[in-house]
Structures are given as C-alpha cells and as structure tokens.
Amino acid sequence: MAPSNYSYKYFNVTFPQEHVAHVEINRPEKLNAFVEEMWLNLGQIFNKLSHDPDVRCVVLSGAGDRAFTAGLDVQAASQGSILGASGTKLDVARTATGIRRHIFEFQSCITAIEKCEKPVISILHGYTYGLGLDIASSTDIRLSTTMTLFSVKEVDIGLAADIGTLSRLPKCVGNQSWVKDICLTARQFSSEEALRFGLVSGVFGDKAEALREGFRIAGVVAGKSPVAVQGTKSIVNYSRDHSVEEGLNYTAIWNAAMVQTEDVKAAMLAGLQKDKKKPTFSKL
Questions:
Q1: Are 66 and 28 in contact (CB under 8 A)?
Q2: Residues β-bridged to residue 25
Q3: List of E strands, the chain
Q4: pLDDT at position 251
Q5: Multiple choice CATH, 226-272, 1.10.12.10, 1.10.10.10, 3.40.640.10, 1.10.3720.10
Q6: In the CATH scheme, what is the code of domain 4-222?
Q7: Bridge partners for 142 per DSSP
Q8: How far apart are CA 82 and CA 79, in angstroms?
Q9: What is the pLDDT of residue 74?
Q10: What pLDDT score does 186 carry?
Q11: Fewer CB near the last or first residue (10 Å), C or N of the chain?
C-alpha cells in the first residue's frame, strides 16, 4: 500500500519489499501517455522518494502490458500551452519566454528521476516512445522485454526532442551515428537493437519476468550501505559529464566525509565473519 503522501491520480506508488519503492505510470487506457498533471506529479514523486529514509532503490514501470508509455498525449498537448495556438497575439520574445519557462519546468520534472538520490531501475515494456525515452534515459538501470518497441518520435510531430533524450541518450550509448539515425528518422527499433547499442542492460521474455529481475536487482541494491549506494550514483553521474581529473577530485572530496561512516566498519566486519552474516545499515 502507498502512504497517503504518495497518492496520485495517474501513478501507483507502492513498497513491495523492504527499502524498495515501485512507481507505476497508471493511465493504461491511453497507453500511459502523459498529460501535464502527470509529469508534474512524476517530479513530485521522485523528489519525495529521493529524501525518503525508508527508500533505497526505486523500480519504475507502466500499468498494463501494452506500453511503458507511448509518450506525450499529443491531442491534449495540442490544446495546451506548448503545442496549442494561443488565442492572444503576443510579441515573439514574450511568447518564446513563456514556452522556454514551460519547457524548463517539464525538463525539471524528468530530471528529478536522474537527481533522485536513490538508484532507479526502469522496466521498459510495450510501446516506449518519445517521452518514454526521455524518462528511460534519466534512469540508472534499464531492462526491457522481447516485445518492447522504441521510437524517438518527436521529428514526426515537427519538434526536436526537448525533454532530455537528445542530451542523455548519446551518453547512455556512446554511438553518435546510431543516436542520429533513430532520432532523425523516428524509426521504430527493437529491444535486440537497444541491447546491442547499450541502451538496455537486459532483455526478458515478458513484463512480468523483467519486473521480477528489476525487483531482484533492487533488493540487492537496497541491502547495501545507503551511504555507498548514493555516493556511487552521484559520482558516476558527475564523472559522466566531467573529465577524469575532475571526477577523481569530486570522488576525493565526497569520500573525505563519507568514508568516515559506520557503514564501512559494519561491511568490513561482516566480510571477516565466517558465517557471512549480512550487515544491517541505518537509514540515511
């Protein structure tokens, strides 16, 4: 069950095992396509989970079997403030300012997943289109199914993808040619191709199997020191965007404080014990 402070119209937030949260996008009748309320709620959820001391890892999936998410609900967006035509004729600079602010707000809601202190495992199933790849590329570990279909759809609606895919995807896969291929053509590609280029780290027979593996990994991560896990995510993300020297310096500064944790002693003591008793770690 979800605590009352995790109650949202379009999301199911549950805690199926110790220290693990499950966030499920819940609009299956519309292929989990996003309207504005949904991305605002998504940001709120991950900001809460980031600071929730009972949570150490998060699994993210979509309700139903048909889609992780088909992306932005284009019909709803066409009537809103991004794609829709304004009834009032505004100065170009003022119109652009409003659109830019809206895009920044949208981006920040998806970036909340990447900034979440807890590792996030996404289970990509069915249609994973457009915004689905924006969301997926902001997660830490990506798993998919043999039936998952991916597409960066934005050029098909006259846009350059602006919520994260074009910035994160090249760093997820390290192949500029392939990224430009899928982004410029908006072509559909399979999990086999996603695995081959490093977008996902595992492909499973169906959603249920992928979820089981996601929860298994989440359970392993949740059993580690939360100090070590949060530090590892932060350092890897920082190093992705900086030079090796800058990454090493950041690591030294981080661990100058964090290596003093009691978690190091607990983990080392457990490793020395012949019965291999699993260490327990305090909340963070």
A1: yes
A2: 11, 62
A3: 11-17, 20-25, 57-62, 67-69, 120-124, 127-129, 141-145, 149-151, 189-190, 202-204
A4: 97
A5: 1.10.12.10
A6: 3.90.226.10
A7: 122
A8: 8
A9: 86
A10: 97
A11: N
What tens digit of pLDDT does each residue of 250-283 get? 999 999 999 999 999 888 887 767 556 788 899 9
Say if residues 68 and 24 touch (Cβ distance below 8 Å). no
8 A C-beta contact, residue 130 and residue 152: yes
Per-residue model confidence (pLDDT) at position 81: 57
Reduced to 3 states (helix: H, G, I; strand: E, B; else coil), residue 210 is helix
| Per-residue DSSP letter, 128 | E
**Across the strands, what pairs with 271?**
none
Which residues does the chain have with pLDDT short of 50? 1
For residue 92, the model assigns a pLDDT of 92
Q: Residue 67 in contact with residue 126, Cβ under 8 Å?
A: yes
How far out from the chain centre does Cα 258 lie?
Answer: 25
Q: What are phi and psi of 250, to 5 degrees?
A: -60, -40
Sequence letter at residue 36: E
Where do you find CATH 1.10.12.10 in the chain? 226-272
Q: What is the pTM of this model?
A: 0.93
- Residue 48 corresponds to which amino acid? K
Return residue ranges of the chain for CATH 3.90.226.10: 4-222
Residue 34, both tokens: 């996003």
